């Protein structure tokens, strides 16, 4: 087996750990470590020496732990076996997270359970390479940021969901107001999660709640939005709201004369209109009758001896002969 004389890794930024594929090294092998990288030597599953950025020629001084373990003579190209893992220590800024399923939370303002979703991102940095590789990467030849996100998804979602629910219920923050609290909630969740990440040699650099919303097609959400729209209309119209609602219902029913309840309502509207017209005609006829009665009263007053208005005696009407027309008396 050929001895490896140069070890190096140049890979994508989302790869956090990469294992060099060969393990046949020697005193004299060059190990090149880029900026924001560390190279860890493993022997028998045990993490030993760590090399930082730079070009390193292997010798007893720079890998003393491995030197003691392998007990190989120093000098020349004496071979030995060891595994080399490269660890990316750059800050990974764009690790996505989100709830797979909505969280049922009771809204403190409307007292109904609504399905809440949350989405965001966080940034991580490997702070302890040995701890990270031994606990998470293990024997995997490669470990990515997506694998890290999946690994922490359970604890992340549990604590994020608990805190969102706690904030909404205990602090009485409803869904319509929660966007104003995202920054404070993000900081609080980051603090709660920091210890869980640190156990595995990972620093949680930042954590963001980008949005908290609800599915638009959920039945509860649809009914709640309808109720809020009706309430807003009531607040705007005030006393005229009930009148408008009645007119809307009547208009809708009248526009559906096809049958059933719509036909009944349409017929009712027609009957109502007919009754209204009948009442108008009756009023007009009543006025005419009153006018006739007045005329008859006036005619009757013509044969009276006293004035109906002032009570003075009325002059007797002259009488004439029906034959010759001469005045009598």
Topology:
Blueprint: E1 6-7, E2 15-19, E3 24-26, E4 30-33, E5 37-43, E6 46-51, E7 54-57, H1 64-70, E8 79-81, E9 83-88, E10 92-98, E11 103-106, E12 113-126, H2 129-137, E13 142-144, H3 145-170, H4 182-198, E14 202-213, H5 219-237, H6 240-254, H7 260-301, E15 319-320, E16 327-328
Parallel strand pairs: 1-4
Antiparallel strand pairs: 2-9, 2-13, 3-8, 4-7, 5-6, 5-9, 10-12, 11-12, 12-14, 15-16
Written description of the protein model:
There is one protein chain. The protein is an alpha+beta fold and 329 residues long. It has helices at 64-70, 129-137, 145-170, 182-198, 219-237, 240-254, 260-301, and strands at 6-7, 15-19, 24-26, 30-33, 37-43, 46-51, 54-57, 79-81, 83-88, 92-98, 103-106, 113-126, 142-144, 202-213, 319-320, 327-328. The strands form five sheets. The chain has a five-stranded antiparallel sheet, sandwiched between helices. Strands 10, 11, 12 and 14 form a four-stranded antiparallel sheet that branches. A three-stranded mixed sheet has the order 1-4-7, with no helix packed on it. A hairpin with a 6-residue loop joins strand 15 and strand 16 (327-328). The longest helix has 42 residues, at 260-301.
